[in-house]
Structure formats: structure tokens, C-alpha cells
Design goal:
The protein contains six helices and 16 strands. With 286 residues, it is an alpha+beta fold.
Amino acid sequence: MSEGHVAQIWRYPVKSMGGERLDAVQVRTGGLPGDRAWAVRDEERGRIRGAKKIPRLMRCKARYPLSPTQGGGLAEITLPDGSRLTTHDPSAARRLSEALGREVTLWPLEPADRLEHYRRGAPTHPDVALELRSIFGLLPHEPLPDLSVFPREVLEFETPPGTYFDAFPLLLLTDASLRALQERAPKSVIDVRRFRPNFLIAVPPQTEGFVELAWLGRKLRIGSARLEVTIACPRCVMTTHGFDDLPQDASIMRTLVREAAQKLGVYARIAEPGEVAVGDTVELLD
């Protein structure tokens, strides 16, 4: 059964920075080649850190001048002032630190057995509930998400060792969900860039609501690739940050909590690699 077609493809060379749109991509078992192949490490904390704690990361953008391998390659970063550097630039750490307002270094993916590289550091807040609320952008009366749905390793590590993904290699989002959120938050600027999917899927215009939540546990064929939809994506404070022409807007999280139990989009893993291009049909298999 056809669910729609691929409207946009996104790849994010550096974790938490703005990404690049693609016309087509080869989906491999580890995800999109070069997706989140780089990350910054907070040298004050000594661990990998994303825009949940360093919001200015989202004001940077990254792209690959040449097609990357699965493990990445040289990426070009545009800083908030419009200046550029590459991930191989000897001054990259200094210039990024100046742009972000804290000392950071830039790291490629490390082998999965380098566990200390991926291990979680000390929290900002000693109170666990307060720490989680700051990460997810929640008010004291709003419920925390159910973390038991995540792979156990992400409770111990910042990202699954060997990757810089939050949990799974792909994030899917439909335009119906964006429309539904905009209808429920008419004063907010709802833009796909806030939600950082790999695939934005266009469904029939009459489709209403957060439709991809019905795909959990099912398989999709997208182009010649086959995906297994795993869990809904509980949204974090990153969706509320201001960057580019998008204003900071904490009310987006209030709407997500109230209208969608804080979830928007779904994670997926790759069941069968293949090529995906804009315009390809998205088919629900079972």
C-alpha cells in the first residue's frame, strides 16, 4: 500500500549542525553515507556534546564538497558569521570554540570499541529529573518521556558506540505531521529544519494527523531500500532553538506535549540497503 513519496532527503555531516539536501542517496546498513560522521566534544566536560546543551551548534551548517564514504570524509562547515572552514582545517577547533562560546574539539567517528569516547559524562544538573527536563525542554508539570523504549546503550553512552546518532540511523517525518503541528500552533513557525529528518515523506493532502505513528513495528519500502520502523521520536529542546530565519520558540514544545505526547516523526533501521531518490514511492509492506 502506497503511503506517499519522498519529498526531501537530508544528511547532517556534523552532529547538531544544519545539514544538506540531496536529490538521491544510497542507503546502507549504517544509514546514509556521511550522516553525522563528525561531532564536537565539549572540552570543559570531556565528552561528545550536541545542541541540546550547545544551542549555537544549530547556527552552523555542514556539507560535503565531495561524496563521502560511510564513515564520512572532509566536510565544509559554515559558521554563523558566514565564514567557512573544513573538518581537516588545523584551526577548526579554535574557530569553532570562538563561534560556540566554549572550548570544543572536532572529532570524526571513532571505532565502536573506543567506549570512553562515547560514554556519557557528568550531567549539568545533579538532579536527574532536572537534567532530563533541561534536555527535553519540559516544564515541571509535564511528563518525562518513556526512556525504556530506547536501546539500553544510549542510557550509558552519548550515542550508540561507533555512531553519532541519538538512537537509530534514520529519522522519518511526514508533511502531514508538519501540517498537523502548524494547525495546532498557528503562531509558531513550523519548519522541517527544526525537526531534522533524513526523509520528509509527502502523503496525500487529505491525510490528517501524525500518521507515521501508525507505522511503528512495520516495514516500509522507500525506493529500493527497505526500512523497519522502530520507535516514535520523543522531541527535545533542540526543536525550540532559534537559528537561520527561525525564531526561538519554547511554545513548540508545549504544543508537542499537549497534542502529540511530545512525539514527532519515527526512527527506523535499515532492513535492506538500496537507493532512494526524491519522488520515489514510499510503500507500507505489512
